[in-house]
Design a protein that fits this description.
globular, five-stranded parallel sheet, 5 helices, alpha/beta, disordered N terminus, Rossmann fold, about 15% strand
């Protein structure tokens, strides 16, 4: 039985390549565990700073062979390049702008939340502080993006730079 009270087997979730951009090792570990608990089917890729996130989606450096993510879970508070800059760069790149970006943060700063939407973030979600709520948050997001939403097809072509 899932955290939402319904059997997971009833929900047909498609395979997803998810990129999680999270600098806090404990948050990253919890996120990975929550996806597993939610019955995640797919590949979960993780990077720890904004610079690596941009290299990943541009498929540069050590990321030349990675798949383009179907969805990105992006924390705002990142070292090297902040989350708003990552969001802006991705949404200004024609070959990447189709990727949904779920921005999550502990912030309640209205300016940050407005900025996420002004930069075409797909949604802003305040991270729950309680473990059970966090598990439900990840499960709900996963079910929504893997079984409810019809994602944009990935662009054709070998180069996304």
């Amino acid at each position: 039985m899932s955290a939402l009270g319904s059997p997971r087997s009833r929900i047909a979730c498609r395979h997803l390549d998810i990129l999680v951009v999270e600098s806090d090792p404990a948050e990253l570990y919890l996120t990975e565990m929550a996806f597993r608990e939610a019955g995640f089917r797919g590949d979960l890729h993780c990077v720890k700073d904004g610079e690596d996130a941009l290299m990943y989606v541009r498929r540069n450096g050590k990321y030349t062979e990675v798949p383009l993510p179907d969805i990105i879970f992006l924390n705002l508070a990142l070292p090297k390049v902040d989350g708003l800059t990552v969001l802006k760069e991705i949404k200004q790149t024609p070959a990447l702008l189709h990727i949904p970006i779920v921005v999550s943060s502990l912030t309640e700063n209205l300016a940050d939340i407005r900025a996420v939407y002004a930069l075409n973030g797909n949604c802003f979600i305040r991270k729950p502080l309680e473990l059970a709520e966090f598990l439900k948050f990840i499960e709900t997001c996963y079910q929504f993006w893997s079984s409810v939403v019809t994602l944009s097809p990935k662009p054709a072509g070998p180069d996304f730079h």
